[in-house]
Amino acid sequence: MDTSLADAARKAGAWLACRPGCTQCCHGAFAINALDVARLQTGMRELHATNPGKAEAIERRAQSWVMEFGPDFPGDVVSGVLGTSEDDQERFEEFANEAACPALDPVTGLCDVYEWRPMTCRVFGPPVRMAEGDSLGCCELCFVGASEEETAACEMPVPHELEERLVEEIGDARETVVAFVLAG
């Protein structure tokens, strides 16, 4: 994914507005799968070993996030598992939409877990298709004024099948949000 993103960014040039400090994609809760959870947990273990102060700061922000938004969480607030009922799914559509991700360092405007970020974060910005046959989508700040052809020329391929297969191998179809994973 990192290679694919770098290639898409090279092709896009100035059309891609994503830069360090741009936090458009760092607000709002979104569902993450077991593979994203594993990535984040790996990152937190590494940060605890190499930069415990940063790891503890992330955990404090995540715990604050859970305290603030947990009462309205459409799922199990103890485990952090998102509910699957129709009502839970509807409630999630409006849940914590303006909340900053606890991985976002409020001083630097950078993601403190960038290397281990979820797939949703990895594909936000460049033009991508969420499924075969879907139209291209990209961050509203990117490709402003670009033609459909210019945008399409910068499409970033996403290995959806590989992600799905890896999640199946993990054997856990439950979803959560970043804050519950980072809270420790």
UniProtKB/TrEMBL annotation:
InterPro entries reported for this sequence: Puta_zinc/iron-chelating_dom
Protein name: YkgJ family cysteine cluster protein
